[in-house]
Amino acid sequence: MSEITARNEPVISKKIDKFFIGLANAFKFVKRFFQEVWFPPYEFKEILRQCYEIGYRSLPLISLTGFIVGIVFTNQSRPSLAEFGAASWLPSLISIAIIRAMGPLVTALIAAGKVGSSIGAEIGSMKVTEQIDAMEVSAINPFKYLVVTRTIATTLMIPILVLYTDFVALMGSFINVNQNELVSLSTFFVQVFEAVSFLDVFSSLIKSLVFGFTIGIVGCYKGYNSSNGTEGVGKAANASVVMSMFLIFIEELLALQIVNAIRYA
Amino acid sequence: MHSDEQKKVVEIRGLKKSFDENHVLRGVDLDLYKSENLVVLGKSGSGKSVLIKLMVGLLKQDEGEINILGRNTHKLPLKELNKLRLKIGFAFQASALYDSMTVRENLEFPLTRNVKNLTRKEINAKVEGLLDSVGLPKTINQMPSELSGGQKKRIGIARTLILEPEIMLYDEPTAGLDPTTCIDINNLINQVREEYNTSSIVITHDLTCAKVTGDRMAVLIEGQFESIGTFDEVFTNASDPKIKSFYDYNFIQ
């Protein structure tokens, strides 16, 4: 893929030029993904392998984090609700918080750290050791094999991981509520389902798709454009995490505005 | 020397390539004839690797023409360029084996993606045959990280041969190897030519490798070929001080 490069004489200043050139190259990269994703070869085997790596291998970390988030959030929310005699509303409050925001956000941030960095480092190391060039000279499309497959895998896996995190966090919350308020599992989940609407779950899943796409494409972009040997690989991994997290927060803010507009329309 | 009747498989004219202010190639002309091994010599950073990367379209030239098997690579759309790439084997300096794949998968990867309707038996036969011919049949299930530098180079060459190329490009095939392994790799380069009837360009700064593998030498100095001919024509009694210093430097090393 031909990259846009800086002119010898900067148009505004070297830093500003570099920023806009980076932006233009990132857009070209995303555009190429959407151009190539529809056409064969589809590399199903590699997509499945990546789904396993990204989804299944993230389960232990996601489980632990989700469970702890559920317990801690419930514990911290109790005093405020108890002050108004509303401790029985805990399941409703926690479920709304987890499904609307905490589940997707916590999962996406953890995946950005774990998956985004690993994609950035893996593709970065393939780039600097000429493995990507080796694919190209063998008439294999490296973009398709490396970028499209990983981005599809993160886009598919993050929503599934979010649903799983939601469940684990709610179980953590239930254990805490059960210990303190002696609420049964069925009562807890009746309250949860009463509080949560279709829009909450649907918007959370759509948001997670976007988060997953962001983590995949940013990791691939940073890895694909890494240079300067092993130092560049480290930088690519680091930049993948930082950029993914930054974009996830921006997307979360935008999603909040859009969903609220729909909810209160 | 080559008569005009001999078939040119590569014809390069007026090739120029710069990276910012660094003019790496300054108008290179080069011919490669059918079944010959041409060695491109030059110091590190002289543009040898850039030359072969331009040939396979990994880099784009600023000026000049590259004709490979009668096709102008610069003007080819990607689909056509990929068809041409199948006829060119590129052995990378650091082997560029895919880290996440076993040796078998490394060899199968370009084959299964470019040749359709092969049975498992045919694929196995091809992979095992190639590993036999590079002398490493036992490495088939090993990961690249378990191989030595020399073994990686051999597997890298085997991987390029799986598509039966007409032209082989070797980028520093003996770099970083001990003298004994260098001899093995040099012999392998000659063996590949005999068995697969390939025409090759060998990029190196190792004069021993050049002497053993090359029919002709081309010395790249400051972005241009200073001298092209047989080893004796180029180096024995070389009068050009740049070539003489390159020769002396190599043997003192």
UniProtKB/TrEMBL annotation, chain A:
It comes from the Bacteria. Keywords: Membrane, Transmembrane, Transmembrane helix. PANTHER family: ABC TRANSPORTER PERMEASE PROTEIN-RELATED, PROTEIN TRIGALACTOSYLDIACYLGLYCEROL 1, CHLOROPLASTIC. This is ABC transporter permease. The chain crosses the membrane at residues 54-73, 93-112, 152-175, 195-221, 241-262. The keyword Transport does not apply. Coiled coil: none annotated. InterPro entries: Permease_MalE (IPR030802).
TrEMBL record, chain B:
It holds the Pfam family ABC_tran. The keyword ATP-binding applies. One of its GO terms (molecular function) is ATP binding. It comes from the Bacteria. Keywords: ATP-binding, Nucleotide-binding, Transport. The keyword Oxidoreductase does not apply. Residues 10-247 form the ABC transporter domain. PANTHER family: PROTEIN TRIGALACTOSYLDIACYLGLYCEROL 3, CHLOROPLASTIC (PTHR43023:SF3). This is ATP-binding cassette domain-containing protein.
